[in-house]
Structures are given as structure tokens and as C-alpha cells.
Amino acid sequence: MQIHEILTTNCVFASLNAKSKKQVLEELAGKASGASGVPKTKVFETLLERERLGTTGVGDGIAIPHGKVEGLDRLLGFFARLEDPIEFESIDDKPVDLIFLLLAPVTAGTDHLKALARISRLLRDHVTCDKLRAAASPERLYYLLTREAVVSAS
User: Fold this and answer.
1) What pLDDT was estimated at residue 14?
2) 100, 143, 144, 150: which has the fewest C-beta neighbours closer than 10 Å?
């Protein structure tokens, strides 16, 4: 599972303005609804339900909210860099400014876990995260997030 298989440039947001965890999840749920046709409320409730189980704020300013949503037919990724870091109840208590949302069909099985592992590996790289924080455009963010496909195709 490669990032470019689940993420498109229209699903990358270079400067999302949100002031709270709930607001950012609602904003991303709306964007996911537009891309998938699944109602925003269904996506938002799935994300809130997952957060009730435990935070998806993994530390170092990164959150990877995720969930299985009825009505999806494939894995979908969304990436947002926030204008200002927000409190996300992260495991290290640091505010979050990089968010990778992963949505999966309810039948996704291990594909969902493989995609989460790939995203986690990518965002554990401090150099990559520094570049994501410095990138000015959605296109540059997309390139940085998907460059393993470019490198392996060379």
C-alpha cells in the first residue's frame, strides 16, 4: 500500500484554519464527504467515536485520525497542515499541526492497518515533517507525502 494509492492532490490542504480538535475533525469530515459522497455526519460521527476510544494524536505535532465508514468502496486519505497548532489530547500533550486522515470501508480488513502503518512510518521521519511544515502549496505537500512512489519508479 503506497500513499499515492489513497491520496490525491485535491485531498491535501496546505493551510487549514481550525481552532479545536472537534472543528478540525468536522472540517475534514466535510472534505471527505465531498470526495466520497458519504454524508458528512456519518464521517464526523465515525471520527468522534474513534477519538472516544483513545486519541489519534500520536505525538510530535502529528495526528492520524481514522475509521471505517459504511458506504466507502476504497481507502481514502486526506492531509492537512493547520495554520496554527491545536490541542488534540496527544500522547505527548503537544499541540498538533499535521493531520493525516484515513477512512476505510467497513470491509477493509488488513488494508486499513497496512495503510495506517505506512502513514505512521512516513510521519515518524522528522526530516519529512520539517519539510511538510515548510511547504507552501498543496502540490508540494502531495509530492513530499507520495515521493516514495516517485523514488521507486525511477
Assistant:
1) 95
2) 150
